Amino acid sequence: MTARLSSDRGTTAIDDRVIVAIACRAAAGTPGIGGVDGTVLGVPVGDRRPRGRTIAHGDLARPRVRISVAYPASVREVTRRARVRIRDEVQALTGLRVGPVDIDVAALTHERRLP
């Protein structure tokens, strides 16, 4: 689907892929968050980064992001910070209203590169 913003100057269409890219970058920039492996037919491929999708209708977007959390960080606190950051960045960069931000924690990691 595509989100649409209307004003007296016309209508701007924002593709779901744009919303997903913004949400995933915002999640990746949140301390304590890492990515998940992409898979093809159950085989891990590509790099480890947050993955996402969104539902957009009119001027409302509902992002969903799949992440890993660095152990022993508080999953509740890390995901709370990520929700706020995702909501703020999607709103600021697109002008869309952002509904609930769903976060799926796919793994806990011991990676040292995560703060």
Which terms summarize this structure?
five-stranded mixed β-sheet
Q: Which oligomeric state applies?
A: single chain
Structural class: alpha/beta
Question: Which value, in Å, is the CA radius of gyration?
Answer: 15 Å
Mean pLDDT over the residues:
86
Q: What's the helix-strand series? A: EEHEEEEEHEE
How far apart the termini lie comes to: 35 Å
Helical content band: 25-40%
**How does the major sheet shape up?**
5 strands, mixed
What is the overall number of helices? 2
Strand content: over 45%
Task: Tally the beta strands.
Answer: 9
> What overall form do the CA principal axes indicate?
globular
Which spans have pLDDT < 50 for at least 5 consecutive residues? Answer: none
Q: How is this structure best described in words?
A:
By secondary structure, the protein is α/β, with parallel strands linked by helices. Helices cover 29% and strands 47% of the residues. It is built from two helices and nine strands; from the N terminus they run E-E-H-E-E-E-E-E-H-E-E. The chain has helices spanning 16-28, 75-94, and strands at residues 2-7, 10-15, 33-34, 36-40, 43-49, 51-57, 60-70, 97-98, 102-109. Strands 3, 6, 7, 8 and 9 form a five-stranded mixed sheet that branches. It has a two-stranded antiparallel sheet with strand order 1-2. Strand 6 (51-57) and strand 7 form a beta hairpin. The longest helix is centred in the C-terminal third of the chain and has 20 residues, at 75-94. The chain starts with a strand and ends in a 6-residue tail after the last strand.
